[in-house]
């Protein structure tokens, strides 16, 4: 007796990260100004009351441990150890009355701490 199995369709994964228009615009300004020649590296570190936080640093060039993400003509680096936590994330830039900064809309987050500084998956 022989059975044939139909191969399962391959699911396409969401992009590792995307940038909102505001984030891309802000990064272009930073890259053209004081951070000329550098790239933003995004990582996830163990920190805060929920356990994890986004860690943004400047890098001179990609390393072997970086994923290179280009969206809207802007390149950022993602620490390879953070890819599972960031898959499908959109990075935004928000300006509020008393603050401005990059924010993350991460479909992998299961919750955030009360102050918003850390998250868990």
Automatic annotation (TrEMBL):
One family name in Pfam for this protein: Fe-S_biosyn
Core domain: residues covered: 17-117
InterPro entries (alphabetical): ATAP, ATAP_core_dom, Fe-S_cluster_asmbl/transfer, FeS_cluster_insertion_CS, HesB-like_dom_sf
Alphabetized Gene3D superfamilies for the sequence: HesB-like domain (2.60.300.12)
Entry-linked PANTHER family: IRON-SULFUR CLUSTER ASSEMBLY 1 HOMOLOG, MITOCHONDRIAL, IRON-SULFUR CLUSTER ASSEMBLY PROTEIN
Family in the record: Belongs to the HesB/IscA family.
Protein name, per record: Iron-sulfur cluster assembly accessory protein
């Amino acid at each position: 007796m022989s059975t044939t199995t139909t191969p399962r369709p391959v699911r396409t994964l969401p992009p590792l990260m995307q940038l909102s228009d505001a984030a891309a615009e802000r990064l272009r300004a930073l890259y053209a100004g004081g951070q000329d020649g550098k790239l933003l590296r995004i990582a996830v570190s163990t920190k805060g009351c929920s356990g994890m936080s986004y860690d943004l640093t400047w890098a001179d060039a990609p390393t072997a441990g970086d994923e290179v993400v280009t969206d809207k003509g802007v390149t950022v680096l993602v620490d390879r150890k953070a890819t599972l936590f960031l898959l499908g994330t959109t990075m935004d830039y928000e300006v509020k009355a008393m603050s401005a900064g990059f924010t993350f809309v991460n479909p992998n987050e299961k919750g955030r701490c009360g102050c918003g500084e850390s998250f868990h998956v």
